Predict the structure.
Amino acid sequence: MTQYQGLTHREVQEKRIEYGDNLLEQKNRKNPFKIFFSQFQDLMTLILLCSTAISLAMGEKMEAVTIIAIVILNALMGFFQEYRTERSLEKLSALAAPTAQVIRDGKICTIPAKEVTVGDLVLLKEGDRVPADCRILENNAIMCDESLLTGESVPVEKGFTDYRTKDTSPQVCAYMGTIVCRGHGKAVVYAIGEDTKMGEIAVMLDSIEQEQTPLQKKLDQLGKIIAAGCLIICALVAGVGILRGEPVMDMLITGISLAVAAIPEGLPAIVTIALALSVNRMVKKNAVIRKLHAVETLGCANVICSDKTGTLTENRMTVKELYCDGKKFSVSGNGLESGKIQKNGRKILISEDEELKRSLEIAAVCSNARIENQNRRPKTMLTKKISVSGEATEAALAVLAMKGGIEYSSAGYTLLKELPFDSKRKMMSVLVRAKDGELLMFTKGAPDILLQRCAFIQKNGSTQVMTPAIRKSILEENDTMAQGALRVLALCWRKISGSNDCAEQNLVFCGLAGMIDPPRKEAFEAVAVCKKAQIRPVMITGDSKQTACAIASQLKILTPDMKVITGDELDRMDNDTFLRVLPKTSVFARVTPAHKLRIVKGLKEQGNVVAMTGDGVNDAPAVKEANIGVSMGKNGTDVTKEASSVILLDDNFATLVSAVEEGRVIYRNIRKFIRYLLSCNIGEVVTMFLAMLMGMPVPLLPIQILLINLVTDGLPAIALGLDPADQDVMNQKPRKSSDSIFSDGLLSVILFRGMLIGLTTVAAFSILLTSGASLQVARTGALVTLILTQLIHVFECKSETKTLFHIPFFNNFKLIAAVCTSLAVMCFAVWTPMGRMIFETAALSLPQVKLIGVLLAAAPLLWTVISSTLFKRR
């Protein structure tokens, strides 16, 4: 033990000048105003803003107001999403201790944690949050919960060092943000602020730049195409008009008007609405989406990096095997599920086996875990209402005993004294009195240690001498269990003379209990779905290589052709070697936060779209770096939640796979309504352009185009965004993030279909004009034809591979309702006095309706079916 007395007041002042405050500072903090105004910089928004200015200049105030409202709504939503991501470091700072007890000038004083400096002598006691990285100088059974940094929930027992050695090995250090869960002592600070382990994570978080999601990139690409299209339309119309001898200024205005008509004003709003509605669906599946565009990015994921504990496993230790008197027993049921103790598939009762009964008594009584909320069926049956208090290992033993029909409260033993576990003895003992007055010691602990203290073994209901051969066979069984990644405890006992007879010697060996945190049942199917969908699952854990391999092999994540790499092996690899082995590695064990970040960066560098799960602070940098960061809702820290895009409320890998499926569905649906909206807008442009080329009057007025774009186009497009999943959605490989939104020939389909809509509308307008109808009637006929052809087309957009004859019409009642609403709006605009006044239409006669409905509205349907059949055969 050192006699170091801490800093003096003068030394504190000097060191605070040298090292600064003990704070985690965010260097790249963004101003909220900059975040808000940055939302107006993408190309699609700039096009809409230009469209607003043009509409105002041309006197179309209603259209201008509508477009600007859409732009502001999208900007606000983008602002709130980005602003939330900036709070992750604020949450990290909140994990630092608010105050600290230090010794200065020989006196104990409480100071704000930010004033702690290098060299301070800190007092640590149970329940304290460590204020900085410290070396422990005095230790009275200190154990620290380091799950924030390591991800592992088991408390770490600490040693101590001398002040003069400068030893900073993990065994003698307490780290900033961790919690002292047992014991007390003194420690000297050797690192503060960003120089701490927590600070390293903060620096990694701060250095990660947020990238655009695949959908955002595709919408930017779409914006460029629309911008180019607008310029081409404007130039074509103006050029053709000028060649025909029309006034130059009139032709420029006409060209600009057509370009504005070509812009799908509702597209950004419909994308936002579709994503928001998808988010609501995912909440029902226990996934909370913090960033809207992450929904679609999930659909691109081809690698899912998952933590082991609590995500792929139950996060609850469960005894799975027992060994007593040379007999092996299996234990069914994970966690708190009902289960049985079995031998060769047959349930074993404790009345049939004395060694089993005594082993379960030791498991129940030599423990501080207690069964609570005992609203259950008698004896062996557990229900979901059961809960167990206590340390994970002891809780597993308590549940094991319950499955055999024994529990602490009814075992019939009175506790006299407890000899608690410590790392030197590696065992725990209790002295108890049985109902008949017999005094016993029950002991559990590490098999290799306890077997050295066992002089006897319980066999066939009696006590026999422990021979070297028997001891060897027990150790071999212990090794077999350990190789299966089971954590093994030996269960022993002996008779005692009184409460002072505490020697843990001459014990009677009774049994071995092998436990593990087992895989979640639903994780098996989820991993199988991933592989079917050509998504590669990767396990990244801080746990041992042996345990990671056992769980990964059970789940089929680790297959014979894949590798396992440890953190130490990663440290020895140069980047080229690492990138070479990365595609063939499915399990990473004993990894640090820096390793996790390196793995995610490597996978992204190879062109993968990576989803990364995490719960502890140690996971936050990798979660933020991943294309889709996923945090845990139950056991996740606030830091990781703020760095993530998705939160799993049930901490379940299967929920993440379900979210990936939803991501694929929403992307397909986005393609559907982009196809629909752009086809409709191209139809409008073709209508206006052809009519002008043919020397006819303008077939549609601006107010009529606005009605089509925002009502009769908008509602069906939103409903398309709610189309249910196709049955084969998880049988397809993930699309590449580099794929165009118009991939697989979608652009040619849009152009072809849009031209058909335009030709049909111009034909209706032309026939009505030549048949002697007024201009207002002809325009009304064109309006009705355009709406009807578009509403037929919306059903075609439900599938990229099926014709109307094979599309399930009635699996989306919202779409049917939207189409009916659009038809109702059309009828209002044409056949009511108020509608005719607002939209400048005229009532159509029955012959005119028949002409439009039977001959013209059906023409695109016929052509689409014929063309689809031809393309399919080809």
About this structure: The CA atoms of residues 45 and 175 lie 47 Å apart.
